Amino acid sequence: MGRVFRKFLESKRVYSCHTCDAHLADEEHIISKSFQGRLGRAFLFESAINISRGPEESRVLMSGVYKVADICCKVCGALLGWEYLEAKEESQKYKEGRILLEKTRLTRTGNW
Ligand SMILES: [Zn+2]
């Protein structure tokens, strides 16, 4: 495997990859902590770093039909969640471009 450039967040409270500790998202960028992922509870973030996107696909979720792309850790390849690319329902449009990360795939680093 080639060397992957790993970015770091300046924030004191960071959610990192459970497998390799790569920084993923700033605690201040959480939109909601009450989302449902494939593996249970999940958090919705405004943005994330050190991630790579899988192919775009349509998926039927509890709240409607979406175009999504799976999100993996860019450093270790672990599946972390997905990105909402497009929502069909007007009321769900706020999720577009946002990143859902599975709680069980996250670890807290920094000064909590
Ligand atoms: Zn990782």
From TrEMBL:
GO molecular function annotation: metal ion binding
Keywords noted in UniProt: Metal-binding, Zinc
UniProt xrefs under InterPro entries: Yippee, Yippee/Mis18/Cereblon, Yippee_fam
Yippee domain sequence ranges: 13-110
Family classification: Belongs to the yippee family.
PANTHER family cross-referenced by the UniProt entry: PROTEIN YIPPEE-LIKE CG15309-RELATED
Protein name (Swiss-Prot/TrEMBL): Protein yippee-like
Natural source organism: Chondrus crispus (Carrageen Irish moss)
Higher taxonomy: Eukaryota, Rhodophyta, Florideophyceae, Rhodymeniophycidae, Gigartinales
